Amino acid sequence: MMPDADERLEMLARRLGEDRARDVDAERVARQVVARLRREGRTAALAWLRPARVMQVAAAVIILVGAAMLIPRAGREPLTPVASLVPVTLETLGDAELSEVLDSLAFEVPVSELVPIGLFSLSEQELSELLSDMEG
Amino acid sequence: MAPAGPEGRTDAELIAAWRVGDEGAAADLVRRHTAAVARFLAAAGAGDDLDDLVQETFFRAFRRIKSFRGDATFRTWVMAIGSNALKDVQRTRKRRVVVSIDDHEIPDDAADPHGEAVGRELERRMRAAVETLTRLQRDVFLMRAQQGASYEEIAAVLGTTPGAARVHYHHAVKRLKEVLDP
DSSP of chain B, one letter per residue? Predict the structure, then answer.
């Protein structure tokens, strides 16, 4: 029995491109696709090690540490808007802006809170010099 | 149900394995579906760069595997991605080069040269007819007629409804009949 027009059309559709598809080497395509995926994965991983990215991460860590040092003070004093905004805006800041934030934090932190951190690393001679300086 | 390969793993299992970094699973999926995807792309109008296009299609598919929700078979989903890749390729070309069917079809040792010649001519006309369809009509028609996909599945990968897919299919069939049997 002759196929009707719809069946004939579907038969033709099934045949369409069959010969050209047979020429495509599935094994080779699989190798190439996996190689491209591997390359892209490596590139994505390396993107995290770009110097600019490292600097941004380092700056963010420093600022977070600084902010953490301010938190005890926040309990004693009214919370300033700057303290609450710092973690939120870090990712959007440029290098210059990050430097400004760092500078502003440096002024906020009382010297008395920083001294104990440095004292442990000073030699006996350096301590003597420091005491002399303080005495004027 | 997604097909299982000779090693017995289904598409879903291979996709899950790829998601946790199993490159072999990705390779198995490519091997399993390359022929069907290549046939779809060739029928849809891919040029001499069919190899590259198939490769690009699978590469894009694995990059966005997270968006595969499983509401269609992996193969049909990859074909929709292939259709987009083909569109991008065709857009970058000034004019798509139509590959002569004589370069690719019919082996020399054909048992019935006359029958083969008729078949070749039919296929050439069919290809020309498919090129007159809109992209959506073409994709729906090929997924349905060539791959046997359901309207629900086609709708899921082409971002339309099963009813609209059915309408596109019937418009495509009507148009193809007009071109093939004027």
Answer: -PPB-TT--BHHHHHHHHHTT-HHHHHHHHHHHHHHHHHHHHHHT--TTHHHHHHHHHHHHHHTGGG--SSS-HHHHHHHHHHHHHHHHHHHSSSPPPPPGGGTSS-TT-S-HHHHHHHHHHHHHHHHHHTTS-HHHHHHHIIIIIT---HHHHHHHHTS-HHHHHHHHHHHHHHHHHHH--
% of residues, chain B, pLDDT over 90: 64
Contact: B55, A36; criterion CB under 8 Å: yes
Asked if the structure places residue B76 within a domain, the reply is: yes
Is B176 within the bounds of a domain?
A: no
User: What residue of B is the nearest CA neighbor of A13?
Assistant: B146
A76 contacts chain B (CB < 8 A) = no
Q: Is the pTM of this model over 0.80?
A: no
Q: Report the residue from A6, A15, A29 with minimal CB separation from B51.
A: A29
Q: What is the ipTM of this complex?
A: 0.80
Range of the domain at B82: 1-99
Query: What are the domain boundaries of chain A?
Result: 5-47, 51-135
Q: Is residue B163 part of a domain?
A: no
Average pLDDT value over all residues in chain A: 73
Chain B contact present for A37, CB below 8 A: yes
Query: Is the pLDDT assigned to residue A30 strictly greater than 90?
Result: yes
Question: Is B26 within 8 Å of A37 when comparing Cβ atoms?
Answer: yes
Specify if B74 maps to a domain. Answer: yes
pLDDT above 90 covers a percentage of chain A that reads: 15
**Residue B91: CATH number of its domain:** 1.10.1740.10
Report how many domains make up chain B. 1
| pLDDT at B171 > cutoff 50 | yes
Lowest-confidence region among A31-45, B26-40, B68-82: A31-45
B27–A34: do the CB atoms touch at under 8 Å?
yes
